[in-house]
Amino acid sequence: MPDWKSLPTRERLIVALDVPTAAAAHKIVAAVGDSALTFKVGMQLYTAEGPEMVRDLVSSGRRVFLDLKYHDIPNTVASAVKEAAALGVHMLTVHSAGGGKMLRGAVEAAAGVSPSLVVLAVSVLTSMNDGDLQEVGVPRPVAEQVPHLVELALGSGCQGIVASAQEAAELRTKFGDRFAIVTPGVRRAGGSPGDQARVTTPAAAIAAGATHLVVGRPISEAKDPAAEARAILEEMK
Ligand code: C5P
Question: Is 69 an annotated catalytic residue?
Answer without folding.
Answer: yes
